[in-house]
């Protein structure tokens, strides 16, 4: 059984939620962490950190999820928290084309402020089928061109929310394990090189 004490978890990673105002970042977090949904969600002011324990590759991991504000006045603050993050969810609202058009900005922010992060592109609010403005095919094409994985979600109906975060967790953990293995191999290679014997005065 997984404990609520996150300090016992070896694999802990920072993840930033990015995207324009009103795309449902906070609702995605609430659905993932509390399994709740509300039509009235207060505007995110600044940032908030929510830890979530997941099970991926038969390992426990904790994602420290940073919910960033989408409004322009908070963007300089967001950049500070994006720095060095190993992973991000970039979300847009499928019923608002302008939030899809903003994705280039958010991608640039992510890859400018972090070193080769893992990223999932999320199209949220797919429950609002009659109001949809962004075609799934267009979002998939954008993801393909930018080498991203695309997931469509509904925080309201709990569609693919946990799957999006679990997939990101897998990607981050896999990269981390490969990096650790590469570092261990490098250290072993260095230690296997025989050190030259210094000649003493009696030799």
From TrEMBL:
<dbReference type="GO" id="GO:0003924">
    <property type="term" value="F:GTPase activity"/>
</dbReference>
<dbReference type="GO" id="GO:0005525">
    <property type="term" value="F:GTP binding"/>
</dbReference>
<dbReference type="Pfam" id="PF00071">
    <property type="entry name" value="Ras"/>
</dbReference>
<comment type="similarity">
    <text>Belongs to the small GTPase superfamily. Rab family.</text>
</comment>
<dbReference type="InterPro" id="IPR005225">
    <property type="entry name" value="Small_GTP-bd"/>
</dbReference>
<dbReference type="InterPro" id="IPR050209">
    <property type="entry name" value="Rab_GTPases_membrane_traffic"/>
</dbReference>
<protein>
    <submittedName>
        <fullName>Uncharacterized protein</fullName>
    </submittedName>
</protein>
<dbReference type="InterPro" id="IPR001806">
    <property type="entry name" value="Small_GTPase"/>
</dbReference>
<dbReference type="InterPro" id="IPR027417">
    <property type="entry name" value="P-loop_NTPase"/>
</dbReference>
<feature type="region of interest" description="Disordered">
    <location>
        <begin position="181"/>
        <end position="203"/>
    </location>
</feature>
